[in-house]
Amino acid sequence: MATVNLTSDDFETTVLEPGIVLVDFWAEWCGPCKQFGPIFEEASGANPDITFAKVDTEDQQALAGAAGITSIPTLMAFRDGVLVFSQPGALPAPALTQVIDAVRGLDMDDVHAQIAAQREATPAE
């Protein structure tokens, strides 16, 4: 599957889809982003069951701000609409593969149970 470019118009609907969505927050002027870009693209070709998306932080500044992006590149992984991984920095290919394998291996029933438990433990303001 080809990498898709996300904007504030389609970010939420994309990351809330069932399955895995990896999002690379980047900018054209960013050296580490340029280093990570080909690694991300190669992983996209090798994992057609995963949605690979990019957000240009220069073009989508409000979206980057809303996502709490303070350093680029930042990789976020969503599974079934849940943010399960977020890390700034350019990952080498083996580390990206580890992230993909870990996200695939998550027990989402357990993740949803943990989220529910946290909500119950947090008093409403």
TrEMBL record:
| Assigned keywords, A-Z | Disulfide bond, Electron transport, Redox-active center, Transport
Q: Which CDD domains match?
A: TRX_family
Say if the entry is tagged with keyword Nucleus. no
Pfam family, any one:
Thioredoxin
Q: Does the keyword Transmembrane helix apply?
A: no
Q: Where is the Thioredoxin domain?
A: 1-105
Database matches in PROSITE patterns: THIOREDOXIN_1, THIOREDOXIN_2
List each coiled-coil range: none
Query: Which family is this protein grouped under?
Result: Belongs to the thioredoxin family.
The protein in question is named Thioredoxin
Query: What organism is this sequence from?
Result: Conyzicola nivalis
